[in-house]
Specification:
The complex is a heterodimer of chains A (166) and B (537). With 166 residues, chain A is an alpha+beta fold. Chain A folds into two domains: 14-76; 80-159, Pleckstrin-homology domain (PH domain)/Phosphotyrosine-binding domain (PTB) (PH-domain like, Roll), CATH 2.30.29. Helix content of chain A is 46%, strand content 25%. Chain A contains four helices and seven strands. Chain B has 537 residues and is α+β, with helices and mostly antiparallel strands. The chains are: A alpha+beta (166), B alpha+beta (537).
């Protein structure tokens, strides 16, 4: 509008670890495994409706293959993050995408989290919460060392701030 | 790192010794609560008592074993009185409860956000009030004192809210020294004279009661309670039977009219019960204070330092009748804690707007024109109402053709289609935003239109969300996150560049860092400290 120079916002500078693609693939396989288990159960418990089962099964197959093949790569292309001395900026999602910016002065907690799959790939995610219940800022699929460094930096910056950050 | 370590208050040091002794001593609930507890138990157990009474009426038995319950209830109440104590010390309020299972709840005074006084009818007979102290936005962060004498409760409230006042301590709360209760106890207790009255309920506003969903919901609640009561009396009663027969013999439109009249009357009763004597005042320190209620009286005090904005509600019915209502956006009020955020019950728009001007002196934010979100947003409103309607239309038409459903099911669909278009147009008309020097204004909705005026300093982060279809349309939902009210307020379907322009306008340095052309420098880091986003006042 009246701020011609400032309209655009560049992407956050850092990509997540390339191993995140494999991590998301494994996670997607787990989701698909549940669906397949449900399908198999239906196949053996209900022998009367083979036609419907073929239709649902083939749709499931296409969706699952697409999900496992596309989601991790798409997500890797979108996921980016950047932390400066007074703000954290992330870009996440795949079909639905979002960018989040939070000033470090409003940060309340910084968590490092490693799920079982993430541990397998030596990855970690960092969650930054503010005083608002809406929208913790999350960065998934970081190298462990990078994540630890990020947590340290964020904690130091946030401790320096006074007030209750509301 | 969420909580800073408590400041070393000069607790039982020399200052405290010269200070008032009662400040440090444990205080008890008022002894008259001994009557409240059995009374409450009795009310709760009323159906059981009635059942026993009715059963006994038919038999000659002399046994009165249920009377054993009476001393037990009395003893429980007494135990509660003996074991519950509270005190204010070292910048904290402590509440101790329990006999075998002792519980101590502690809250820092500078975390106290709102103090509610509630007096149900039996409290009022005894001159008591229940005091609820809220320190956060979850139910756990709440101290309940049931009950204190009303004056005692008000005094406590003054102590709690005013000692953390920044005008008094001159610094943000955590670094300020507590002010002696003796100084404040009488001087700063909310007195009628020292307060500015901002609003007083005009009984004529009751006419808005049937036009809001809240009114209808409370009408439904009253019906529920009443029908339960009737069931205890028994549905075999002749009056009810003949009444039901009379209603079922009437024409359908008379029935409809009857329902409307009854629902309206109930909504009016609910309005009167909730808002009778509604009064909004502001004391000399800026805290907002509401009183309301016909039978149950409620008083809510909101520390002005916690207020982050206001919200106008204009549900369709109310809007068509030229009314609106006002709520406060503040940290520390429970979402589910019904209605302690009311600043004005449904009332004429001019009155509400005037009140809003008095609370937020920013004419553009309160009543200024808003910027619309553009053609893409309008298209999306239309697709969102038309698509489901068309799907329904196709499905029902197919059903009539394939399975021979009666054509009557398709007949009302053209009207539905028109309604969908009208709704979409009204939703687009409602969509708007504005950035003023002090506030971010966002409006949306048709059936439940809201206009939120949010303090810029209350915004603690941003989100820019784009679904697949939003990306194709070049629009985004801009979300301002905050610690107050709903925790986030959304500007829906804003053109993408406008979304970034809004962020740039409200928090320029936050965005400047991530812009391609502007180089970063130490100067930017320093200047960011002075920006609105970084100050917590």
């Amino acid at each position: 509008m009246d701020l011609p120079d400032q309209q655009a916002l560049r992407e956050p500078s850092q990509r997540v670890s390339p191993r995140a693609v494999r991590m998301w693939t494994v996670e997607a396989l787990f989701v698909v495994a549940w669906l397949v288990a449900g399908m198999v159960a239906w196949w053996f418990l209900d022998t009367g409706s083979r036609d419907a089962q073929w239709v649902v099964g083939s749709i499931l197959l296409v969706v699952s293959v697409g999900y496992v093949a596309i989601m991790p790569r798409w997500r890797f292309r979108v996921h980016r993050w950047e932390a400066t001395s007074y703000a954290i900026y992330t870009q996440t999602g795949w079909i639905k995408q979002e960018r989040r910016i939070a000033p470090l002065s409003r940060v309340q907690t910084v968590d490092l989290e490693r799920g079982p799959v993430a541990q397998l790939f030596k990855l970690a995610s960092v969650t930054v919460t503010t005083a608002s219940a809406a929208g913790p800022v999350k960065v998934h699929g970081l190298e462990l060392a990078v994540a630890e460094e990020l947590v340290e930096g964020l904690t130091a910056a946030a401790v320096a701030e006074k007030g209750d950050a509301t | 790192m969420t909580e800073q370590p408590p400041e070393p208050f000069p607790a039982p040091g020399p200052e405290a010794a010269t200070g008032p002794v009662p400040d440090l001593a444990w205080r008890r609930l008022d002894a008259r609560m001994l009557l409240i507890h059995p009374l409450e138990t009795l009310v709760r157990a009323l159906p059981a008592v009635l059942a026993i009474f009715l059963a006994r009426a038919g038999s000659d038995s002399d046994e009165r074993w249920e009377l054993i319950a009476v001393p037990v209830i009395l003893a429980l109440g007494a135990l509660r009185w003996v074991t519950t104590r509270y005190r204010i010390q070292g910048g904290q309020i402590e509440l101790r409860r329990g006999w075998l299972n002792k519980q101590t709840t502690t809250a820092r005074l500078d975390k106290v956000r709102t103090v509610d006084l509630t007096a149900k009818i039996y409290h009022r007979v005894l001159g008591l009030a229940k005091v609820e102290i809220s320190t956060g936005s979850s139910a756990k962060e709440r101290l309940v004192l049931d009950s204190l004498r009303v004056e005692q409760g008000r005094r406590l409230r003054a102590e709690l809210l005013h000692r953390v006042d920044r005008a008094v301590t001159a610094r943000p709360a955590p670094t300020g020294r507590p002010v002696d209760a003796a100084v404040l106890g009488t001087a700063a207790a909310p007195r009628e004279g020292g307060d500015v009255e901002l609003l007083r309920l005009d009984p004529a506003w009751v006419r808005y009661a049937p036009l809001t969903l809240t009114g209808l919901a409370s009408a439904a609640a009253i019906v529920g309670v009443a029908s339960q009561g009737l069931r205890t009396v028994g549905d075999e009663s002749d009056t009810i039977r003949s009444g039901a027969r009379w209603v079922s013999e009437l024409e359908w439109w008379t029935d409809l009219l009857l329902v409307l009249v009854v629902v309206s009357a109930l909504a009016v009763i609910a309005y009167v019960l909730t808002f009778w004597g509604f009064r909004l005042t502001r004391n000399q320190l800026g805290s907002l204070h509401t009183r309301r209620g016909l039978l149950t009286k409620r008083e809510t005090s909101i520390d002005h330092a916690r207020v982050r904005g206001i919200r106008f509600d204009e549900p369709l019915g109310l809007r068509l009748a030229g009314g609106r209502r006002l709520k406060v956006v503040t940290t520390g009020l429970l979402h589910e804690h019904g209605g302690s955020d009311w600043l004005c019950p449904p009332a004429p728009a001019a009155v509400v707007t005037g009140l809003a001007r008095a609370i937020v002196p920013d004419e553009d934010a309160v009543a200024g024109r808003l910027q619309q979100h553009g053609p893409a947003a309008r298209r999306r409103r239309l697709t969102r109402t038309l698509a489901p309607t068309l799907v329904l239309l196709v499905a029902l038409t197919a059903a009539t053709l394939a399975w021979g459903w009666p054509p009557a099911v398709v007949a009302p669909l053209p009207i539905l289609l028109l309604a969908a278009v009208a709704l979409a147009r009204d939703r687009y008309a409602g969509l708007g935003h504005r950035v003023t020097p002090g506030h971010l204004v966002a409006r949306e909705g048709s059936l439940d239109r809201r206009r939120v005026v949010l303090d810029r300093s209350g915004i603690i982060g941003w989100k820019v969300e784009q679904s697949f279809f939003q990306r194709r349309a070049g629009v985004a939902t801009l979300v301002a996150t905050t610690a107050a009210g709903q925790q986030h307020y959304d500007l829906v379907d804003l053109p993408l560049e406008r979304a970034y322009a809004v962020i740039a306008e409200v928090s320029p340095d936050l965005l400047a860092e991530f812009q391609p052309s502007l180089p970063e420098g130490p100067g930017a880091i320093d200047s960011c400290r002075d920006q609105p986003l970084d100050s917590s006042t």
